[in-house]
């Protein structure tokens, strides 16, 4: 964290290399957060550019009241929300449920205790199905699940990013999981 | 505590976000409540699904694309600033131009050309002829046109 503040000071003084270092350090996290919420690699790439440009433009406003990563996640989540709202009318209605084949494949994996040792090909296939299921959720649930399960943030960190109380995070995650459970009712 | 409250607590429990006291109550309840026990099992399965989600790598040369876009934006914004400046200053420049033009011409408005000036020469044929004759006399002395003829 101290290292981040040092880099941020350098960026504020106009050091382009410090900015490049910040980009290199956080691009994996930012990319995976956006990808998990948006579900598309090209979108994730475009939005990630917007995120880092926003960071560069507003770095002077960052006063260090939270950690840099919290601030970065907040910008990332807000950019995703902006993009989703912009496209709301353009989104094609996706299938609302998993099909029979997907349900069968997922059921086999989910009942398997050794979920972490399944072969790569099957893993990729299942990952796609899980991603599709997550994509079926409303945006706020996708975001809160991403911050918890993909970014491994604590409830306190999620509450800082989403600007809500820890109790609200608790309820949001509970509701997100209930929705997910509903979508996976034929699998569980 | 009702089952619904325990279910909310279960979701927090699988994330390791409950207090010791809550954990104790929860584990005690699961032992005696089959519905909450089933719920716990389902939540655990759902959580495990996320273990399958591998980290994706960003598209190659992200930094190159980002910095190119930032550079392009900078040059665009420079042009935009110039454009906006021109747009803003155009009425002022126009007013200034008209003002200068007015000041330069105001003297002409009040000034009257005296008789026999160069400008009168250009419009009066007789004076023009006299002027030519005077010039010839200066260069060649007094002319005796009749003798030459």
Secondary-structure blueprint:
The complex is a heterodimer of chains A (188) and B (149).
Chain A: H1 2-12, H2 16-38, H3 41-58, H4 68-87, H5 100-110, H6 120-135, H7 139-150, H8 155-162, H9 166-183
Helix pairs in contact in A: 1-2, 2-3, 2-4, 2-7, 3-4, 4-8, 7-9, 8-9
Chain B: H1 3-13, H2 20-32, H3 34-49, H4 62-110, H5 118-121, H6 125-140, H7 145-148
Structure notes:
The complex is a heterodimer of chains A (188) and B (149). Chain A is mainly alpha-helical and 188 residues long. In chain A, 73% of the residues lie in helices and 0% in strands. Chain B is an all-alpha fold. Chain B has a domain at 3-52. In chain B, 76% of the residues lie in helices and 0% in strands. Chain B has seven helices and no strands. The mean pLDDT of chain B is 82. The interface between A and B is large, with 42 and 31 residues.
Proportion in β-strands of chain B: under 5%
Percentage of residues assigned to helices of chain A: over 70%
- Strand content bin of chain A: under 5%
Span of the ends, CA to CA of chain A:
41 Å
How does the overall form of chain A come out from the CA principal axes? elongated
Sheet of most strands of chain B: none
How does the major sheet of chain A shape up?
Answer: none
Rg of Cα set of chain B: 50 Å
DSSP, total strands of chain B:
0
Low-confidence stretches of chain A: none
Mean pLDDT of chain B equals 82
Helix count of chain B equals 7
Provide the low-confidence segments of chain B as ranges. Answer: none
Mean pLDDT of chain A, to the nearest integer, reads 88
From the alpha carbons, calculate the radius of gyration of chain A and give it in angstroms. 18 Å
- What structural class do helix, strand and pairing data of chain B support? mainly alpha
Given helix and strand content, the structural type of chain A is mainly alpha
């Amino acid at each position: 964290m101290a290292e981040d503040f040092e880099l941020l000071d350098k960026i504020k003084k106009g050091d382009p290399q410090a900015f490049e270092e910040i980009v290199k350090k956080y691009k994996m996290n930012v990319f995976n957060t956006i990808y998990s919420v948006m579900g598309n690699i090209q979108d994730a790439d475009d939005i990630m550019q917007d995120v880092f440009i926003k960071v560069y433009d507003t770095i002077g406003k960052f006063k260090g009241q939270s950690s840099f990563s919290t601030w970065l996640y907040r910008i990332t989540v807000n950019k995703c929300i902006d993009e989703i709202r912009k496209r709301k009318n353009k989104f094609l209605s996706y299938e609302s449920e998993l099909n029979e084949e997907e349900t069968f494949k997922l059921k086999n994996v989910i009942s398997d205790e050794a979920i972490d040792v399944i072969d790569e090909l099957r893993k990729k296939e299942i990952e796609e199905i899980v991603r599709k299921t997550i994509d079926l959720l409303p945006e706020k649930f996708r975001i809160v699940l991403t911050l918890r399960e993909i970014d491994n943030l604590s409830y306190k960190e999620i509450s800082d990013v989403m600007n809500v109380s820890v109790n609200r995070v608790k309820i949001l995650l509970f509701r997100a999981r209930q929705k997910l459970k509903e979508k996976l009712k034929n699998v569980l | 505590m009702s089952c619904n409250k325990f279910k909310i607590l279960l979701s927090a429990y699988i994330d390791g976000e409950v207090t010791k006291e809550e954990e104790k109550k929860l584990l005690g309840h699961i032992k005696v409540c089959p519905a909450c026990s089933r719920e716990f099992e389902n939540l655990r399965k759902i959580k495990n699904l996320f273990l399958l989600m591998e980290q994706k790598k960003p598209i190659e040369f992200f930094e190159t694309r980002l910095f190119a876009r930032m550079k392009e934006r900078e040059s665009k914004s420079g042009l935009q600033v110039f454009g906006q400046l021109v747009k803003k200053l155009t009425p002022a420049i126009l007013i200034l131009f008209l003002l200068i033009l007015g000041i330069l011409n105001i003297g002409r408005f009040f000034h009257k050309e005296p008789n026999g000036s160069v400008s009168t020469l250009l419009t009066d044929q007789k004076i023009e002829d006299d002027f030519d004759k005077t010039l010839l006399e200066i260069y060649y002395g007094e002319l005796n046109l009749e003798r030459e003829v």
